[in-house]
Amino acid sequence: MSCKVKTCLVRLLAVLVLAGTGDFAASQHREQSQPTLAPIVIGVSNVQSGPSSRLGQKLLEGSRAYFDIVNHAGGIHGRQIEMVMKDDRYEPDPAVQNTNDLITKDNVFFLFDYVGTPTLTRVLPLLKYYEDQQIVNVAPFTGADPQRKPPYDKYVFNIRASYREETQALVRYLYGKGYRRIGYFGQADAYGKSGEIGVKSALAVYGLNLVAIASYRRNAPFDASMKEQVEILRSQGADAVISVGVYGPCAAFIRDARQSGWKVPIANVSFVGPGAMLSLLVEESRKTGQDLTAGLLNSQVVPSPDETGYPLVAGYRAHVSPQRAGFISLEGWLNAAVVSEALKRAGLNPTRAAFIKAMESLQGWDPGLGVKLEFSPTSHQGMHKVWLTKTEKGRWVPERDRGTVP
Fold it and tell me: Same structural domain for residues 76 and 180?
């Protein structure tokens, strides 16, 4: 893409971002004539280093790309959006310390783009502690239940579907394809337990239970052996596996399963980091001369980055190169689009209370996915939509055939 074409696309997106605030030229003139206003400071604590770093890096990459367009167009009512980023390494203790610092020292307007169940669940009591300051956590990258239920649901705005909804979609698909002996592979912490509960609940609808369960330690690398976990599930006759983990160990499990000759379908949820997981498997396939990418399924909380029929995806792809596009950065872009709309609605001099009301007012607003948000004063769950993808020639493609379920 030439610089001239890219510049035009950026300007076009800037116009679209400002579409709800009136005439673009008038808005530019009005905001340029105003004195410099204090920025809107957003606080982020997520994983930027270690074996799971791609999750936090890609999520922020997508959000930053969107915020760059907003800022280039003059910001929100003349205010630039800034993010204060702290690395928690996908570990609970640093996440708690980072969050406390973001609230008390950095005085952030709200918290944003957190990554993971084990980190967020430890942060929730802190949000309750600072309840009088009306600080909320928006768009965490986790589908777990704790922040979706009282007493913590009022402190968190979840945009993505839950793990229960993702695992229901995976179980429904596998059942429709005739699989009845489903095994479970998950991370040995709150995240993995949340996924396990979701799978068991979905199976119970069909009178089934898990045939076996295997787990691994959080932050295990790709070069870790998962042969023992493969044998646990294989020995119990699992004819399909649902995994709830992170790209490194989940890719290792797939590698060891395929190299042992076990070719059952293996499904993962969105948090795995499907792009990073598949990249590891493609590279390992090149080294070994064996295709390790066949027979994989993934639930997603955003559509494929190639489905530009969705206005949100079209805008994303106009600004993000094909080499950098992916499910997680698209989710980050979506997160930024939602909070930007809420910030516009919060007014010229927004308070935290006004921002919360603005988020709750987004009920019925479509961010460009053909799905209307469901936020309200009584519900902080934005979307319930789940998309399915499968591997085809080393790529993720949409899965249109959902099977037949009685």
Answer: no
pTM of the model: 0.89
Q: Are residues 260 and 135 in the same domain?
A: no
Domain count, the chain: 2
Tally: H helices and E strands in the chain: 13, 12
Q: What is the band of 296 on the pLDDT scale with cuts at 50, 70, 90?
A: very high
Q: Give the pLDDT score at 20.
A: 42
Peptide bond preceding 151 in cis form (omega within 30 of 0): yes
Question: What pLDDT, on the 0 to 100 scale, is given for residue 400?
Answer: 82
Work out the end-to-end distance of the chain between its first and last CA atoms, rounded to an integer number of angstroms: 48
Long-range contact set of residues 348-356: C-beta below 8 Å, sequence gap at least 24: 348/77, 348/78, 350/40, 350/109, 351/134, 352/109, 352/110, 352/133, 352/134, 352/135, 352/136, 353/134, 355/109, 355/110, 355/136, 356/134, 356/136
Residue 331 shares a structural domain with residue 253: no
Q: Is residue 381 part of a domain?
A: no
pLDDT in tens, 316-358: 999 999 989 999 999 999 999 999 999 999 999 999 999 999 9
Q: What pLDDT, on a 0 to 100 scale, did the predictor assign at position 119? A: 97
Domain interval for residue 235:
163-300+388-398
Indicate the average pLDDT of the chain: 92
Pair 78, 201 in one domain? no
- Which two three-digit tokens encode residue 75? 């910001």
Residue 69 CB: number of other CB atoms within 10 A? Answer: 26
CB-count burial class (<10 Å; 0-12, 13-18, 19+) for 1: exposed
Q: What is the pLDDT of residue 174?
A: 98
| 363 close to 138: Cβ distance less than 8 angstroms | no
Same domain as 280, residue 222: yes
* Amino acid, single-letter form, for residue 159: I
Which has the closest alpha carbon to 165: 388, 398, 385?
Answer: 385
